[in-house]
Amino acid sequence: MTSISIADYRANYLKPRRVKRRVSVKKAKTVSKGESTLIQHLKAYKIEFVQEFRFNLERKWRADFHLTGTKILIEVEGGIWLGGKGRHTSGKGYLGDMEKYNSATALGYSVYRYSTEQVKSGKAIEEIRQMVG
Fold first, then answer.
1. 54: Cβ–Cβ under 8 A, 6 or more apart, which residues?
2. Which of 8, 13, 56, 117 is deepest in the core (most CB within 10 A)?
3. Three-class HEC string of the chain
4. Are 113 and 98 in contact (CB under 8 A)?
5. Mean pLDDT in order along the chain per 10 residues (133 residues)
6. Cβ–Cβ < 8 Å for 61, 54
């Protein structure tokens, strides 16, 4: 009787094990109703903008919109009627938003915040047109 090493046995008689790799997939940001409506309004009035504008490279913060050629950032605040269960109305989310907006202001940006209702009603685009007009 001959003997073989464990390594030889594994190499010759066992099927190789597949290693399952975890794939990290970042979900694409879904555009809210308010954001998609504002996109339509900005395009209709030929106001140039950048979506998901990264204004602070250190913190990787982004604004919903940056009006090109200005220092104006626009935020569309969704979920404000969720009774503290939405991102912007929970304590932690509210504090995070304050830090983000204060950072933008310190960097010289003006931050304008609108609710989805204000965007849908046309109030937001009226004010934006006055700012850039």
1. 60, 61, 62
2. 56
3. CCCCCHHHHHHHHCCCCCCCCCCCCCCCCCCCHHHHHHHHHHHHCCCCEEEEEEEECCCCEEEEEEECCCCEEEEEECCCCCCCCCCCCCHHHHHHHHHHHHHHHHCCCEEEEEEHHHHHHCHHHHHHHHHHC
4. no
5. 77 73 68 92 97 90 95 87 59 83 95 95 97 88
6. yes
